[in-house]
Every structure is written in structure tokens, then in C-alpha cells.
Design goal:
Number of helices: 13
CATH class of the largest domain: Alpha Beta
Bound molecules: zinc ion
Helix content: 25-40%
Radius of gyration: 25 Å
Largest sheet: 11 strands, mixed
Number of domains: 3
Structural class: alpha+beta
Oligomer: single chain
Distance between the termini: 36 Å
Strand order of the largest sheet: 3-7-8-14-11-10-9-22-25-21-20
CATH superfamily of the largest domain: Bira Bifunctional Protein, Domain 2
CATH architecture of the largest domain: 2-Layer Sandwich
Number of strands: 25
Length: about 475
């Protein structure tokens, strides 16, 4: 049985991505256009993302809850910017129980409105604050152009929602969760990100300020990998969420929301993947190590398999390990198959290894000979943990080097137009939405992020030449 090759990334990045998602069995197309089916391997990856994030949310004092999928349509009309931003994407239920509904219901695109409504009932006094909630669920946004994981009509995510007594506390929360996302991206997914603020035209509909972690994909396009919004009192006023403060004054609360979705799986694929397939970050990989036994005849088979099972049992308490004992495919086929699926470490055990009490380890992040080494079977559990950490560090370093090599600082607008074809442009920007809009029209590059870390001083806007105090990153994006 031969193993079909993927298109190369250089030749067609988009097709490489589409075929990889299908062939690695992460997801498949659903009968409804724009929807996806997340397959067990993809869902296992999402579950590991969930675990890593959920632990961080709990550690920062949040609790999980579940709010309904259906929201009265009128709720969306209460916050002006929110309705303008979301109404074209709403899926609306008009019939139920065989009858036309008195009030149409929206399938949630996000839950600020329903949670705001419930808070207006639950919050009475400063003693009821802060409210620190998170919800794991699915939402629907009627997108016209879709791509598996990156933009689908229905997707899975977590949405955090918090309410606070003061502006300062809400702003602190917004930044805290941005840093949680940054920490998760770097330390779990080995994805370097730039934390910063979105411009007025790129922010969330209804937010005062939107913060983002922005990541560079393998084709140099940008991807918004997580967002944290300071909502001010916009939703508090729309839903009349008030509380009696210590000073006996009735005040509106201050709210935030923050989210990260299955889109992040798209980022993992596009940041780390190579022409052989996925390269999964070890801390999130559903299978961290796969054992491939190698035999030529029946006698070897039973001996090798027995030892392979012992190795599996020894590793199981330490890592997520899988023994590939399929006997209808060759070891070569298995090697390609697990490479395609991005398993960080392959453990090869053949008859000679069994005699010598050794195994051969092959790293997915370093294909070929440089990533191979033979180690004693005894003590393997003590070797594999540090090896997975080393792989994580190497993947983060590679992704960071690639990104930094593709961030340019053009001095003229002509240079700018040239670099956004193959990288990011880090430039002075006067802050005007007109300059952003013209740049977008002209080059398809958008203002991705105004990094929190600023050089200070003053320059001239890359588009209009007016004095500018901010540097921003412009790039083509997913
Ligand atoms: Zn300008």
C-alpha cells in the first residue's frame, strides 16, 4: 500500500491545509455548507486545549456555567453597535412546535446579551460582584466564505464574561485574560504571539477596547488567535445591570468578555505543519508518542509485540502513548501515517532492538537522521518527558525565528506595499481609520494589532505622512 503525498506548502498553501485537515482526520465537511464535523482526533486536540485553558480560568477565579443556545431576537437590538455588527450573521429560528413563534429567536453568535439579561436579575449589591463566568459551547455566525476550523458557520469556543464594580477592575480583568491567552499560546501550543490592541475599525461590535493575541501563520498571513474585550458600561446600560455600591449609590457595572475558539486548531496546523503533515505541539498532542513495532515473520512478531506492550505500559503513567499494532499495513506506511498526524515522538522497536534492550526515537520536529537516537529501554519514561519539553522549546524557537524574519519595517509606502505581499509591516500609523481603510483597499492588508509594547517617540504615518505616536502591524489575515 503506498502513501499519497500532500501538495507542498510552497506550491499551494491553501490546498495543503484543506487536504491535511481531511487526511489527518481532524475534521470533515458537514452536509450543511460551511459547517464542520470535528472528528475524534481533532476533538481530542480540542479537549487538550480545553483542559489547558480551563485550568488557567479556574486558577484566576472563574467558574463555568451554561447559558441557552436560543436568545430572543429583541436582545440584539438593545446595544446599537452590537446589533450592527452581528445582525447580518444571525441565524434566526422563526418556527417551533409546528407554529410560527411570536418572537423570533436568534441562535447565539456570542452570549453578552443573554448573560447581561441574567445579570440584571442576579446582581443587586456590590456584594454580588465580581461575577467571573466562563462558558464552553458552540455558536453560529452565518459566514459566507468558510474554511475548516478557521471560519465555519458553527464553531466551538469558550466565552468568558465578567462584571465588576469599577472600571479599573474590569480593565485589569481584560488584561489579565489577554495574558492568560498569551501564556497558553506560548507555553502549551509553542505559538509566539503579539499581544496588543485592535484599532477602532477592527474591534468587537459593542466593545470599548478589544485586545488580541496575533500570530503569524506559515504563509506569513496573520491570525487573530484569541481576544479579550473591555466592554465598559455598554451592555450594563443596554440591559440595566445596576448595583447598590458601598456608598449607597445605584451604579452600572463594568463588563468584559474574552474568547478563544476551534480556530486555534487552524493556527496550530498552519504555524507548525510541514510538507509531511501536522507537527503537533507535545503538550497538546492527543498522542505524544507512538510505538511502531517492526517484524518480518511470525516469530519476530510475537517477541517484538510483547516488548512493545511492556514499553507501552511503562510509558502510560507518564505520557499519552499509543501502540500501533496494525498488521495489515507496513511499518513504512505507519511512519508516514503518524508523521501526517503530527505525533511528536515515534518509538521504533525491531527484533535487533529487542535483543539489545534498546529503542529508536524519532522526533517529528526534526525529520530524518538529526532527530533520531537510540536509547536503552530501561529508563525510557525518564528520557521521554524531557525530550517532549525539548521538542516544545525547539518548535517555539523555530516559529519565533520564522515570524521575526518576516516582520519588516518599511520606510516608504511603496516598500510597505511590497512587504505585505510576503510578511508583516510594522509601521508608524497616525491613528486615523481613513488611512487604515485606504491601505486595506489598496493592498488587502489590515491593521492587525497595535502592540502593547511600543517603541515610544514619534514618526510619520506610513500612508499620509502625518505625525504618528503609535506603531502598528499591518498584514493580510485569515
Ligand atoms: Zn495616516
Amino acid at each position: 500500500m503506498s502513501y499519497p503525498k500532500l501538495p507542498s506548502r510552497a506550491e499551494n498553501f491553501s490546498e495543503w491545509y484543506n487536504q491535511l485537515v481531511l487526511r489527518a482526520e481532524l475534521a470533515d465537511y458537514a452536509p450543511v455548507r460551511g459547517c464542520m464535523v470535528v472528528r475524534p482526533y481533532g476533538w481530542a486536540l480540542w479537549e487538550n486545549i480545553q483542559k489547558a485553558l480551563d485550568a488557567r480560568f479556574k486558577a484566576t477565579g472563574h467558574q463555568n456555567a451554561a447559558f441557552p443556545l436560543l436568545i430572543p431576537l429583541s436582545f440584539f437590538e438593545k446595544e446599537k453597535e452590537h446589533v450592527e455588527g452581528f445582525s447580518p450573521e444571525l441565524a434566526i429560528v422563526t418556527h417551533g412546535g409546528g407554529k410560527k413563534l411570536e418572537e423570533p429567536l436568534a441562535v447565539r453568535p456570542t452570549s453578552e446579551t443573554i448573560i447581561g439579561y441574567m445579570w440584571s436579575k442576579w446582581i443587586r449589591s456590590y456584594r454580588d460582584l465580581p461575577q467571573l463566568l466562563n462558558q464552553w459551547g458552540n455558536v453560529v455566525r452565518w459566514e459566507l466564505r468558510t474554511k475548516l476550523f478557521l471560519r465555519t458557520l458553527e464553531f466551538y469556543w469558550q466565552e468568558g464574561h465578567t462584571a465588576h464594580a469599577t472600571r479599573e477592575e474590569a480593565e485589569e480583568e481584560t488584561m489579565r485574560m489577554l495574558r492568560v491567552y498569551e501564556d497558553f499560546a506560548v507555553n502549551e501550543a509553542a505559538i509566539p504571539v503579539i499581544p496588543g490592541r485592535k484599532s477602532e475599525s477592527e474591534k468587537f461590535a459593542g466593545a470599548v477596547t478589544t485586545y488580541t493575541i496575533e500570530a503569524m501563520m506559515g504563509d506569513t498571513k496573520a491570525l487573530q488567535a484569541g481576544t479579550s474585550h473591555f466592554l465598559g458600561q455598554n451592555f450594563a446600560k443596554a440591559f440595566d445591570i445596576t448595583f447598590l455600591d458601598r456608598d449607597n449609590q445605584l451604579k452600572y457595572v463594568w463588563t468584559t468578555s474574552w474568547g478563544l475558539s476551534t480556530r486555534f486548531i487552524g493556527a496550530i496546523i498552519m504555524v507548525h505543519g510541514d510538507d509531511q503533515g501536522l507537527v503537533l505541539p507535545p503538550r497538546l498532542a492527543p498522542i505524544q508518542s507512538v510505538i511502531v513495532p517492526i517484524w518480518r515473520n511470525e516469530e519476530q512478531r510475537s517477541r517484538v509485540l510483547e516488548v512493545a506492550q511492556q514499553v507501552q505500559s511503562a510509558l502510560q503513567p507518564h505520557i499519552r502513548v499509543h501502540l500501533d499494532d496494525r498488521d495489515h499495513v507496513t511499518p513504512g506506511f505507519k511512519f508516514n501515517d503518524w508523521e501526517l498526524r503530527g505525533v511528536p515522538v515515534r518509538i521504533e522497536i525491531g527484533p535487533r532492538d529487542v535483543e539489545q534492550g534498546v529503542v529508536t526515537l524519532a522526533r517529528r520536529d526534526m525529520p530524518g537522521k538529526p532527530g533520531k537516537k537510540t536509547v536503552p529501554m530501561d529508563g525510557l519514561p525518564q528520557v521521554i518527558g524531557p525530550l517532549l519539553d525539548e521538542i516544545h522549546t525547539n518548535m517555539l524557537r523555530k516559529a519565533t525565528e520564522f515570524r521575526d524574519a518576516h516582520i519588516f519595517e518599511p520606510e516608504t509606502y511603496d516598500e510597505f506595499r511590497e512587504v505585505v505581499g510576503h510578511g508583516w509591516a510594522y509601521v508608524w500609523w497616525c491613528g486615523s481609520p481613513e488611512c487604515e481603510a485606504r491601505i486595506k483597499e489598496d493592498t488587502k492588508a489590515t491593521n492587525r494589532v497595535i502592540p502593547l509594547e511600543q517603541p515610544g517617540g514619534e514618526g510619520r504615518c506610513i500612508y499620509c505622512g502625518a505625525p504618528a505616536r503609535l506603531k502598528a502591524i499591518f498584514a493580510k489575515a485569515y
